[in-house]
Amino acid sequence: MKERVRAAIEKVRPFLQRDGGDIELIDVEDGIVKVKLQGACGSCPMSMMTLKMGVEKQLKEEIPGVKEVVAI
């Protein structure tokens, strides 16, 4: 599952990088995807919306086993 998540994140990454941010996959455990937001995304007040409405939504659509995406 971790490799599927990694591949899905690669599809989202260009959108984050376009705004000066990035995302790093830390771990996948029991359907919980742990990521670290970097660059502009790390300090942006809208980062949680980006994480939930962007990254989490995309991963859930592509990978049925994903329950949640959390930033650590």
Structure description:
The chain is an alpha+beta fold and 72 residues long. The protein has one domain (2-71): Fe-S cluster assembly (FSCA) (GMP Synthetase, Chain A, domain 3). The protein is 51% helix and 29% strand. It has three helices and three strands; from the N terminus they run αββααβ. The chain has helices at residues 2-18, 40-43, 47-62; strands spanning 21-29, 32-39, 68-71. It has a three-stranded mixed β-sheet with strand order 1-2-3. A hairpin with a 2-residue loop joins β1 and β2. α1 (2-18) packs across α3 (47-62). The longest helix is centred in the first third of the chain and has 17 residues, at 2-18. It is globular and about 30 Å long. The protein starts with a helix and ends with a strand. The relative contact order is 0.23. The model has no long low-confidence stretch (mean pLDDT 92).
In short:
The chain is α+β, with helices and mostly antiparallel strands and 72 residues long.
